[in-house]
Design goal:
mainly alpha, 4 helices, 70 residues, elongated, 0% strand
Amino acid sequence: IFFYSQLLSYGRRLPLHELNARIDAVDAKTVMSAMKQYVYNHCPAIAAVGPIEQLREYNRTRSRMYTITH
C-alpha cells in the first residue's frame, strides 16, 4: 500500500535511502510552517461519536485556531 502512495505522490517508488533522507529533513520549522499553512486560521471539521456534552462549542474551537497564530 505504501508503494502506491509513493507512486501517486512522486510518480515512482522512492529508494529507502531517499525516503529516510526526506524524513530526516523534517524539523520543527518545517512542521510549524505546515501547521500555519494548513491548520491555523482555518475552519476545522469536527466529528464526534457518543456523548458530546463535554465537546467544546464550535465557535470557541474556531476562535482558538485564529488566536494561536496571533
